[in-house]
Amino acid sequence: MDPNGKVALINGGARIGQIVALALAARGCSLALTYRNSIEAAEAAAAAARAAGVATAVIRADATDPAQVAAAVKQTVGALGRLDILLNLAGSYEQTPDASQAQWRAAMDANAGSAFLFASAAAPFMKSSGGGRIINFSDWLPVSGRPHYRNYVPYYTSKAAVLALTQSLALELAPDILVNAIAPGPVVAPPDLTDEENAEVLAATPLSRWGGAQEIAKAVLFLVETDFVTGECIRVDGGRHLL
């Protein structure tokens, strides 16, 4: 699929989402950016996209609320005329020792549930336009079958569910809609990372560096533009899964 003249809805536009948005805008793709709390990030990405010459819409939506998700998809089509690409970037990442049922449900809803809701709402509009692309976001650890870190049971399980959802949707929505996923590894360093922690990450990554958000944008563009890859998950982790 050529993104030029198409419309992408990015569910979760902060940090990495902003770079992905700019990469799509640079190729002539109009954008709808949803947010729950980070309106500043969504507005900043929208302003940069408009400067690149594409139409944008900024929409508030709780990605775990079916009614708000359905409304956000309809607003996207109403404002921009169609919907061709869905990027499910929204999610949560929390350490949960002795996780409660509430924490389990919150992680599942934020990471896997939100992707299911947006995909379900978007698919009919994509089919009416001749097809589309759905790109979900998992994590390199569950995709590699390596829990590795303690106290992340709900998060790890929810991101593993994203992979299963991707594969299931790829089968259900073929041949009109291609569904794939990206599993980031050490891409953007947390702002509170210590020098010691940074050294540990670099030592455990064969490419010995953080990837940067641009590497995610490159993977997104590949999955948008390919016409013969579906049900796959690309690990963008600098080879971290090899060690």
H and E order:
EHEHEHEHEHHEHHE
CATH second-level architecture: 3-Layer(aba) Sandwich
| Rg over CA atoms | 17 Å
Distance between the termini: 35 Å
Largest sheet: 7 strands, parallel
- Regarding CATH, which class? Alpha Beta
What's the arrangement of strands in the largest beta sheet? 3-2-1-4-5-6-7
Q: In the CATH scheme, what's the topology name?
A: Rossmann fold
Number of helices: 8
CATH superfamily: NAD(P)-binding Rossmann-like Domain
> How would you sum up the global shape?
globular
**Assembly context of the chains:** single chain
**Poorly predicted ranges:** none
Query: What is the count of β-strands?
Result: 7
The percent range for strand residues is 15-25%
Number of domains: 1
Average pLDDT works out at: 96
Counting helices, strands and paired strands, the structural category is: alpha/beta
Tell me roughly what share of residues is in helical segments: 40-55%
Strand and helix map with partners:
Elements: E1 7-11, H1 16-25, E2 30-35, H2 39-51, E3 56-60, H3 66-80, E4 85-88, H4 101-128, E5 132-137, H5 140-143, H6 153-173, E6 177-184, H7 195-203, H8 213-225, E7 233-236
Parallel strand pairs: 1-2, 1-4, 2-3, 4-5, 5-6, 6-7
